[in-house]
Amino acid sequence: xxxxxxxxxxxxxxxxxxxxxxxxxxxxxxxxxxxxxxxxxxxxxxxxxxxxxxxxxxxxxxxxxxxxxxxxxxxxxxxxxxxxxxxxxxxxxxxxxxxxxxxxxxxxxxxxxxxxxxxxxxxxxxxxxxxxxxxxxxxxxxxxxxxxxxxxxxxxxxxxxxxxxxxxxxxxxxxxxxxxxxxxxxxxxxxxxxxxxxxxxxxxxxxxxxxxxxxxxxxxxxxxxxxxxxxxxxxxxxxxxxxxxxxxxxxxxxxxxxxxxxxxxxxxxxxxxxxxxxxxxxxxxxxxxxxxxxxxxxxxxxxxxxxxxxxxxxxxxxxxxxxxxxxxxxxxxxxxxxxxxxxxxxxxxxxxxxxxxxxxxxxxxxxxxxxxxxxxxxxxxxxxxxxxxxxxxxxxxxxxxxxxxxxxxxxxxxxxxxxxxxxxxxxxxxxxxxxxxxxxxxxxxxxxxxxxxxxxxxxxxxxxxxxxxxxxxxxxxxxxxxxxxxxxxxxxxxxxxxxxxxxxxxxxxxxxxxxxxxxxxxxxxxxxxxxxxxxxxxxxxxxxxxxxxxxxxxxxxxxxxxxxxxxxxxxxxxxxxxxxxxxxxxxxxxxxxxxxxxxxxxxxxxxxxxxxxxxxxxxxxxxxxxxxxxxxxxxxxxxxxxxxxxxxxxxxxxxxxxxxxxxxxxxxxxxxxxxxxxx
Length: 679
What we know:
- There is one protein chain.
- This protein has 679 residues and is α+β, with helices and mostly antiparallel strands.
- The protein folds into 4 domains: 7-182, Restriction Endonuclease; 191-355, no CATH class; 368-583, no CATH class; 606-674, no CATH class.
- It has 29 helices and 16 strands.
- Strands 7, 8, 9, 10, 11, 12, 13 and 14 form an 8-stranded mixed sheet that branches. The protein has a 6-stranded mixed sheet with strand order 1-2-3-4-6-5, sandwiched between helices. The chain has a two-stranded parallel ribbon with strand order 15-16.
- The longest helix has 23 residues, at 469-491.
- The two termini are 51 Å apart.
């Protein structure tokens, strides 16, 4: 968001975002917690934190507003916030910052000991405390981060050690966030002086023949790469790579085995890493040979797995690996013009990764899907019903759009009216609604950013799908369904894990009804029926019991991220009420469609013949019902629905479908069964 001309403008917009967030009904949250929620979203975009969890807690001498724990439990982030409610940014005293940091230090100290005994098992803070207690021997780095929308003078905060873990401190105030956002990169620029920091420069080969960019080739030691990753972590990875690593997750076994067994062969076996940079400072020896002294805005665009694997190998407790024998080749591309950065850097990232068969999704807000959804959200109004005025839901394609609109409303009443008339939903909200409806609650439980990346990967499989008015109306119905479920679950006072309970409960109902909940009715009435609300409450109760009692006493939050958790929830025996069943979309009446004659099945493989036999064994009425179900629930493409009906027609004549028909029809049939389709 480069359009902010001043810190004051950014401050006003940021505060509007906090106020918008505070409109949501979240029990027990203060303005301080909503400030945390907004700021950690910015920090996640900037690569400063991964999968933060908002978890407000205040006790005697203790404070936490959010936290994040790495998958290997080696790194912990604890966030404490200080809210400033002034119209203009004002200074926050060092005393207040020190006090907040001290409360976080005390919290960590108690968490690794016995803090978990103070909470019930289904409490959100229990999850944090028991995780740190169980894995305290794994924890190496703890970062305590003070967040504020005020201004903080530069502080010298020295690291300390608590029971073997290094505790470091950082402060994000509104000025630091403003500089990060307006840099045009949505991250803090990394600048490394190798001579000053490590006492050496890096010999290289340079090529400066292009007017647009220069390339430097070098070989670096594994220890150096591990040290850089240890200091900068995800900030070192260009966003496309960071997104890919979040989705993939597993460390490449081949890289790990080479590091363990043949470290001296790593340079020969590994393709190396690709880096982009804003600038490189070169020193030359007496013979004119170049070496790299300093690099500015270093971003790894290919080789994230290599870098992370080398880092993990250095701290592998099970194997002693000497990284002094490990060398990695590095290609550094320096883009000369700032105007070319936004175009060239993403293309280098995408092309470099594609060469290694890594399918990197385009998570850009400029994707045609998001642009079209934005257009629909600006023009489509909900029906006027039940005494409610029409509303125009606001899809925020790019961060800050909604807050910018609110700043144009000059009075508090006008702002309130705007928010009531234009409910906000974001890209991560969209992914949450869709992946819940599509019965992927374990992915939703992974967190907003990871779930969004997974949604975009699935969207890519739809070959350029662009939403229309019908899609948009169904999406808003899912939003209404989700938000009402949040309120109903909140009223049950389960104590914690509301987000997990909501997504699992709605996914279960989607499965149990085979996605036949009438979204058109929700759109027309802008509300849920009493029968549907009663079902959500009923389902949420047994879902709560299932997810907070994981097998073997596993971590609840991690359990919710497992597909096995979903499988167990699906197996629960629950009967829909007759009232709800009567409201579901009927799929008993088939649509008219053209039939397709059976084709020759000679010279087919045994596998193809088996598929044809399987399709022919399914009754024609089932194929007709499946076609109707697919249309009414908006599953599959129109050609697939037509094909399903055609297969039903062929089977109804006592004939067998073609191999092409059988392949697509049987695949669709099994996908429908997974989503709860029954006949």
